[in-house]
Fold each of these.
Amino acid sequence: MEFVEKYFIEPTVRQSGYNVVNTVVYGLTFILLLYVAIKFFERSKIKLNEKVWFELLPFVFLGGILRSLFDLNFFSAIGFFQYFFITPLLYLTIFLIILVCTFISRVYPKFLNYSGIVLAVSFGLIVLWYGKNVQLFLTALFFSSIVYIILIALLKVVKLHRLAKGINSHVLYGHLLDACSATVAVSLLGYRESQILSAHLIMLSPLTFILIKALVPLVLLYFINRRTKGNTNFILKFALLILGLPQGVHNSLLLLSS
């Protein structure tokens, strides 16, 4: 229990950031769940396609929005349960919300289509109500957009622009938004990156940090496209998406409310 408290409970409750132990455990758990999901959908008759992607996309935004509301002490009234709105428990919360909405959509077929949008917009408006630093918020969006445009231009030069088409663009922009918004927060407001590797990279060189955040998903998308198809292709890309976009949304909204 002392081990669990020191490396898992205290960093979550005190928001002191990740450590080597919980980073490794969370990483291995994520890989295991990814493997289970791939095996499950290989045997199921469910087809994961772009329609499903766009149904789930608002819930990815919702994750980043709920994390921002935690920073604003919006959930403080519910005591211990407020920690279900920060990582890693936030992933479980979003999964349960999607699960409930999926079951309801069996009775009301269009429920899943709109529930994510309604939830993301509703909680997003609450965050905007707290917003007082629009300039920094827009700076992060503008910065990430410029970097994304430069990346697309470079991909066209080397004839790899197909990597940034369709749902792949969501993955790439999500990671760039994460990198650029984190760079703005660290450089201008003195915030500290919570993830160990990212913290070292951004302190070493913000440019290096942004380059790696662009190159890693690009390389992974390249191999995912070449080596996988169908549900496995979808799951791996969606896994990449949730490792970047929610953090980018959270960072940007943190700038807005800081």
Note: The chain has a mean pLDDT of 90.
Amino acid sequence: MPILITGHRGFIGQNMMAALPGSVGHEWGYGEPNLDGIERVIHLGAISSTACRDWDALLEQNVISSVRLLEACDERGIPIQIASSAAVYGPDNTTFVETDKPQPLNPYALSKFIVEKYVERHSWSIPVQVFRYFNVYGPHEDHKDQPSPHSLFRRQAAADGVIRVFEGSEDFRRDFVPVETVIDTHRRFFDLSCAGVYNVGTGTAQSFMDVARQIASETGAEIKEVPMPAQLRRNYQPYTRADMTKTRSALKV
């Protein structure tokens, strides 16, 4: 039986569809997904922009639609995996353990956290696995308004030979995780009956400047530091590093 992937036209969704031949895709705005004959659901569909301030849209697309799909899967006995975000940890977290008190960074993060709490507060007849993605990068990021530095810096290097990094990027460190690792994690959890929230990252942190240097060395591009826009500085998450203890324990690695 096929796997249903919501948000299949997005960055991670396109990669997921390619990695799971025979999967069925569904996008927001095309009615309720058809669950007839579906083996499991990977729910990626959402407004993914961390800059979105339209709470009504976030509530409808990220929260209400997720709850409807979750309940429909429960009624039919279909296991579901739900994409969440490390943004729920907030800007001051340094440990990134799933049991840490969340501090949603922005409305987008809040919408993800609400779905997590809904999952936590209800009993389910199916495995409900929620994955907190850290900073995912890889193919098909071209359409994103906020691509990863791996993709953005390569795009800048190809365009004019100049990689632009924010001032102080030596101190901005993130857990950059390849999309292939994300997909592999989803696949390995297919065979597990465990439920709950799990980090999906590498367990290491790399600075934006290190990423820029790596790409500059490969392309011959120049690195230029630029001021960070004020609207980003207010809610900027300067450091992420997934604690992978729970996830690796579940996977026995």
Note: The CA atoms of residues 94 and 146 lie 23 Å apart.
